[in-house]
């Protein structure tokens, strides 16, 4: 029990409008509190990131699970990944329908199959075999997502124009280190509004939407999926840390590279194997929260860090 | 020869790392040789690395000797589901498809995803819809199934089958190239693992795992145990080692060795650097590969085996 546990969560990097700001902050604080409770009781970082991401998926303010956006045909298609830094084992699902907690399903892929990723109908059939309940689409879709979809249909915005205005919800995620020094990451998303049917973004791709390795640390990424994939953002950050950079330096230099090389913006949360952590983004806003040593920190705007003492030191 | 720059073009292809049965050796050898010559011919005429890798992989998809396109292994339900990726090292653009059925050339569909959508990976039903919209002909799934892959599939369903055995079957075909302009590209295509779960996606469709290409460094295409390659993000890892100053051969060996010790996985890779150095390395018993550089054709299947001929000689003997 050498390491002090740390949990960091994010609720997506994009131009979060003011009317969603307060609920986003509440959402990430809630998720980090739930996940950290697992770590505090001696639970694993894998369980902690799963619980944190479940909380975010269940919160309709975020584009994942309940609250996910609609694709071009008006359906919800979800992607998720979870990764164990001790063994490099990972589980991922892409393009699944009607499942309220994709991250938990990703966990089942890791634990119950010899594979890393399942997709589409095959994934849904496997979920059925496991007895994971399928929920009606209406249950995952909020009025907001529906209105947004209709708006985009009407004006035929291209996906590109959406990115340019940064009006893109994207992704929730968590990274953690537990008392045993094991790191883990989890990422989950409903993707881009009005995306093509079958589009898979960075989230379920190992090394892009997330990566965890006990020898270095763990990362969860959010932002313009295609740009994140082009630079395999999560793995890139850990490469930088292997070269001796701090999580903050590594995150900044990888995000800067992504902007310069492929003109993409995003955000990341990182924890190192020694428990150093960071939350960085090049979008207008990213809701994030962390807990370490009884202190909860959170933020939304660039450079903003607000502190709350949750456990007064004994 | 329009667009011909100063760089000497190079192409390297592989037909999968794993166990190649004696009676399949000759077919595999001539398959990779034909693919390498085809790609090299495109490069020699001033064609792009992207076109060269696409054409080389298309040829191997059409060749029933390889686990890609026609000749793909079957999933648990006895169907062919294929993954493919193509990547342009110039702008890091990439296109990929996963779990697609009933098309002859997944690599061509991957290229369409790259060039005709704002996305990079389309999967399953959605990929199928996209193929239809682009006029890619749908073929009966049966056409992709060989007698041999059906036999192996039913053998694996038997109660006494050894699931570890089919992990050794060669997976995947791939190509990497550098063109006369100095642009690098990679392409990878596969039918995946025998008796895999329906919807299983391996490394081939995942950027950084099944392939990666970056003009600043080089390009690589991987083959072997998909899940292991995903865990170490093998293609990107090799290029990372090259960024740190290793040669393609050192980088490939270091990464394959790491994959073996860390996650107990075997595989093979082909690599070309942005200066035209290349390597074909594997930790499995065999990998069929071929390369052409300076009008010299090389190929091999066993560790340490390199057969060299001139391109003229190879074309003459065809």
TrEMBL record, chain A:
One of its GO terms (cellular component) is cytoplasm. The record marks 170-171 as: Cleavage. The active site is at residue 171. CDD domains: ASRGL1_like (cd04702). It comes from the Eukaryota. One of its GO terms (molecular function) is asparaginase activity. Substrate binds at residues 199-202, 222-225. Belongs to the Ntn-hydrolase family. PANTHER family: ASPARAGINASE (EUROFUNG), L-ASPARAGINASE. This is Isoaspartyl peptidase/L-asparaginase. It comes from Pelusios castaneus (West African mud turtle).
TrEMBL record, chain B:
Substrate binds at residues 200-203, 223-226. It is an enzyme of class 3 (hydrolase). The active site is at residue 172. It comes from the Eukaryota. Keywords: Autocatalytic cleavage, Hydrolase, Protease. It catalyses: L-asparagine + H2O = L-aspartate + NH4(+); Cleavage of a beta-linked Asp residue from the N-terminus of a polypeptide. Gene3D superfamilies: (Glycosyl)asparaginase (3.60.20.30). The keyword Hydrolase applies. GO terms for biological process: L-asparagine catabolic process via L-aspartate; proteolysis. The keyword Glycosyltransferase does not apply. Its EC number is 3.4.19.5, 3.5.1.1. GO terms for molecular function: asparaginase activity; beta-aspartyl-peptidase activity. GO terms for cellular component: cytoplasm. The record marks 171-172 as: Cleavage. InterPro entries: ASRGL1_meta, Ntn_hydrolases_N, Peptidase_T2. Belongs to the Ntn-hydrolase family. PANTHER family: ISOASPARTYL PEPTIDASE_L-ASPARAGINASE (PTHR10188:SF41), L-ASPARAGINASE (PTHR10188). This is Isoaspartyl peptidase/L-asparaginase.
């Amino acid at each position: 029990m050498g390491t002090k546990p740390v949990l960091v969560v994010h609720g997506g990097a994009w131009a979060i409008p003011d009317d969603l700001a307060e609920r986003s902050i509440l959402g990430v604080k809630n998720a980090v509190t739930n996940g950290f409770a697992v770590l505090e009781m001696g639970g694993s970082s894998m369980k902690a990131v799963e619980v944190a991401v479940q909380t975010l998926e269940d919160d309709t303010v975020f584009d994942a699970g309940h609250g996910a956006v609609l694709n071009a045909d008006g359906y919800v298609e979800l992607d998720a990944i979870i990764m164990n830094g001790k063994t490099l084992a990972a589980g991922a699902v892409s393009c699944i329908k009607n499942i309220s907690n994709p991250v938990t399903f990703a966990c089942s892929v890791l634990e119950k199959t010899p594979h890393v990723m399942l997709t589409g109908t095959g994934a849904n059939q496997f979920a059925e075999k496991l007895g994971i309940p399928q929920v009606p689409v209406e249950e995952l879709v909020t009025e907001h997502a529906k209105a947004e979809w209709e708006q985009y249909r009407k004006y035929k915005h291209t996906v590109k124009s959406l990115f340019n205005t940064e009006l893109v919800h994207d992704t929730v995620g968590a990274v953690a280190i537990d008392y045993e020094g094991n790191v883990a990451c989890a990422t989950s998303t409903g993707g881009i509004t009005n995306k093509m049917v079958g589009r898979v973004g960075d989230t379920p791709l190992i090394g892009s939407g997330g990566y965890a390795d006990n020898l270095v640390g763990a990362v969860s990424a959010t932002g313009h999926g295609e740009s994140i994939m082009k630079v395999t953002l999560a793995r890139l950050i850990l490469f930088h840390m292997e070269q001796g950079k701090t999580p903050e330096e590594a995150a900044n230099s990888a995000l800067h590279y992504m902007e310069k090389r492929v003109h993409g913006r995003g955000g990341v949360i990182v924890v190192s194997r020694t428990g150093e952590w960071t939350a960085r983004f090049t979008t207008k806003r990213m809701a994030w929260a962390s807990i370490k040593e009884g202190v909860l920190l959170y933020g939304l705007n660039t450079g903003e860090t607000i502190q709350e003492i949750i456990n007064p030191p004994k | 020869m329009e667009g011909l720059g100063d760089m000497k073009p190079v192409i390297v292809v592989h037909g999968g790392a794993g166990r190649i049965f004696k009676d399949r050796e000759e077919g595999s050898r001539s398959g990779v040789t034909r693919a390498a010559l085809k790609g090299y011919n495109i490069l020699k005429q001033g064609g792009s690395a992207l076109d060269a890798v696409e054409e080389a992989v298309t040829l191997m998809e059409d060749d029933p000797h390889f686990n890609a396109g026609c000749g793909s292994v079957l999933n648990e339900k006895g169907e062919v589901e294929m993954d493919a990726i193509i990547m342009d090292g110039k702008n890091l653009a990439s296109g990929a498809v996963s779990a697609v059925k009933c098309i002859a050339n997944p690599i061509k569909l991957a290229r369409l995803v790259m060039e005709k959508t704002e996305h990079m990976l389309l999967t399953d039903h959605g990929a199928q819809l996209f193929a239809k919209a682009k006029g890619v002909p749908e073929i009966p799934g049966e056409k992709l199934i060989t007698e041999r892959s059906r036999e192996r599939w039913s053998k694996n369903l038997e109660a006494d089958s050894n699931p570890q055995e089919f992990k050794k079957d060669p997976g995947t075909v791939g190509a990497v190239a550098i063109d006369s302009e100095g642009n690098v590209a990679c392409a990878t295509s596969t039918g995946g693992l025998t008796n895999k779960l329906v919807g299983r996606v391996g490394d081939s469709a995942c950027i950084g795992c099944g392939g990666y290409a970056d003009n600043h460094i080089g390009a690589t295409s991987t083959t072997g145990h998909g899940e292991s390659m995903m865990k170490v993000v093998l293609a990107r890892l090799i290029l990372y080692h090259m960024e740190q100053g290793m040669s393609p051969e050192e980088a490939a060996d270091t990464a394959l060795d790491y994959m073996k010790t860390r996650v107990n996985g075997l595989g093979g890779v082909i690599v070309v650097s942005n200066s035209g150095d290349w390597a074909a390395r594997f930790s499995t018993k065999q990998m069929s590969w071929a390369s052409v550089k300076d009008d010299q054709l090389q190929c091999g299947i066993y560790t340490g085996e390199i057969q060299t001929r001139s391109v003229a000689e190879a074309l003459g003997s065809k």
